Fold:
Amino acid sequence: MSTLSNPLVEPGVAPVGTRMSASAITGGTLFRFATAGSVDDGKSTLVGRLLHDSKAILADTLDAVTRTSAERGFGGDNDSAQKIDLALLTDGLRAEREQGITIDVAYRYFATDRRSFILADCPGHVQYTKNTVTGASTADAVVVLIDARKGVLEQTRRHLSVLRLLRVPHVVVAVNKIDLVDFSEEAFRAIEAEVQSVAAQIGVSDVLVVPVSALEGDNVVERSAHTPWYTGPGLLQILEALPTLDEVERGLEPFRFPVQLVIRPQGALAPDLADADDAGASYRDYRAYAGQVASGSVSVGDAITVLPSGRTATVVGIDFAGRSLERAVAPQSVSLRLSEEIDIARGDVIAATGTFGEVSQDLYAELCWLSTKPLREGAKVLIKHGSKTVQGLVRAVTGKLDLDSFELGAAAGLELNDIGTAQIRLASALPLETYALHRRTGAFLVIDAQDGNTLAAGLVKDHPGDREGERYVI
Amino acid sequence: MSTQITETPVDEPVIEPVEIVELNSLDLLESEAIHIIREVVAEFERPALLFSGGKDSVLMLHLATKAFWPGKVPFPVLHVDTGHNFPEVIDFRDRTVERLGLRLEVGSVQEFIDRGELAERADGTRNPLQTVPLLDAIARNKFDAVFGGGRRDEDKARAKERILSLRDEFGQWDPRNQRPELWNLYNGRHTVGQHVRAFPISNWTELDVWRYIAREGIELPPLYYAHDREVFARDGMWRAVGEVSQPRPGEDVVTKQVRYRTVGDMSCTGAVASSAATVHDVVREVAASTLTERGATRADDRISEAAMEDRKKDGYF
Ligand SMILES: Nc1nc2c(ncn2[C@@H]2O[C@H](COP(=O)(O)OP(=O)(O)OP(=O)(O)O)[C@@H](O)[C@H]2O)c(=O)[nH]1
Ligand SMILES: [Mg+2]
Structure:
């Protein structure tokens, strides 16, 4: 038990149980993962356990959580972690603590010898699905929790559908509270089979299923002696080994670069450059396009095409804060200099020549509807794609996902938390790409033109949807 | 020419870069922050950056200079001055603003107190008093986006906040009704009177900040490094002897080698005993620390369990 008896201790020595680890010092790679699953299945407790057992909790935080746990009458007695309500490590809002549920995503950070983690603990309650979509949208992996006593619930199916929709690279299912079914292999195998069948139905592949007890720590950081029948890796071991999204896609996707800004300082040079006479002169005509490589890589000398205009040029320089690079890869933020003075503005996409089809004013999409304001045919919305925002007219809602059959049924609109398909006519053409093949250039936001709120997560589809006959013809 | 961004290893010779692009966690965090800074500048009419001279705001300014190179940083900086500053930090602030050719706006807590629009608190702490001058400066300057150096690892309420955080007409944060924030598509739309707080370094930890400061050779106010100072112990922290923090009877003044992990209002920011005199010493010290940065140094966060959340709801940073 760690208490804050003397905070005036001299720092500098690493006592047992600090966050000193190889990747904390050297950097290592960065892996993002999120939790999902039905309410009370133990997501926050699992996250707390992971942080606690990987020694990522510092003494004052542990001390504060211990005090709050005691005030709330939380009492386990075996090891120190059971004296605290581990969920309090992430449930940081007053309302969350009062109700004992997670409302919005909590981001936590920890590092092991292998890599640094950004962890997004998401809510399970159906009302807060939008927050879970937020947490999952940037994740390299999502851990879906299932209560071993309850099996797959409706919210589990909804979350798995969302993960399929977002194409989260890796889905790991943790069958939690295995302590409450006496560490029974039979119970675990039954849920494992159910999970695999549901996952296959939805189209989520390569799902790993692990029996865990978030409360007692079994198979979270350490493999458990209570589950000798389970021979696979523990949860943390899995998370340390999975490749990141950028590692998975490296070299597979063509170069895409949404232009954020044109950098043309003219008179407004950085003072240190303006003061150096020769440098000042050479930067006076500087012109470059700033952005983040969305996919693929670019090298000096590459032929590029600007979308939607179709103009072409050659990359003559890749700049980053005074350094010239030969090559940049996703997701580096850089500035590109081109051989021609062509008209390029924010919102344009610079792409490797010969890798893009046609820009389009017709958008066929899957939508994950995140607003209490329903979607109706005929609605005018804003579409934010890359660095460009255009108006859109919802021509037709072409289907809605049924969470029991996983079939698309007919629908005239979408309500909060529905997943469906729609046809949208855009005010100007965008370089749309199928999300199924291009994660970063196939995603868009649907925004309310009146109040500016985000209404939906959108994913570009390559065909018009299920009501083929109603395809809007230009 | 190589594209690898190497990090200067702690106390080891610089290794010659090789011909592959391997992005480490600092490269990824840097790229994410620069993307966000550029998005905000592109989409908002009047952005500003909160700049106190503290390490996170210095880091933010460094990232902004990189984002717009060779142009100058295209927005002014705003300091909410509690009047209880460390003189060396104000000095550093002014030198930095001058070096980068920026416009500095100051919101003064002291002026609000002098005009009777704010009352001094019984505990003498002025950090919570910053909200009113902050909102006033935002409204006066019509800033529609304000960059902050807030990090999610600082506090459990900050851990919940979006990278672009919408504030209403009263500057309030509504933690129960935040917009979804999907992929790296940031939605900064707002109506008249609302504004947005942008936190590009949300995903950095204290250790990331220090490793980056070491790698980039970023200058900080000297009090971040070990120095001798007259201090006394209060609330489990070493407090500097100064105009606004005087020892009470029974609080013995000693000269100790200390450094600051955060720099805020002198009346409530504590120092830690430390011999870390160089940036590499600090990296090692932070990596080994058993206390969080705010836990070790901020009296104002100990007021209640949800002190930060309550202040943020009222419009605080
Ligand atoms: N026995 C047992 N109880 C557990 C386990 N994991 C979690 N619990 C308990 O289950 C309850 C809910 O846990 P939480 O971690 O808050 O659940 P959650 O999934 O984060 O809930 P939401 O975020 O609100 O959806 C708490 O009372 C936990 O103590 C476990 O492995 N075994
Ligand atoms: Mg939870």
The first helix of chain B runs from residue 25 to 43. The mean pLDDT of chain B is 88. The pocket of magnesium ion (ligand 2) is lined by residues A 43-44, 87, 91, 102, 121 (CB under 6 Å). Chain B is about 30% helix and 15% strand.
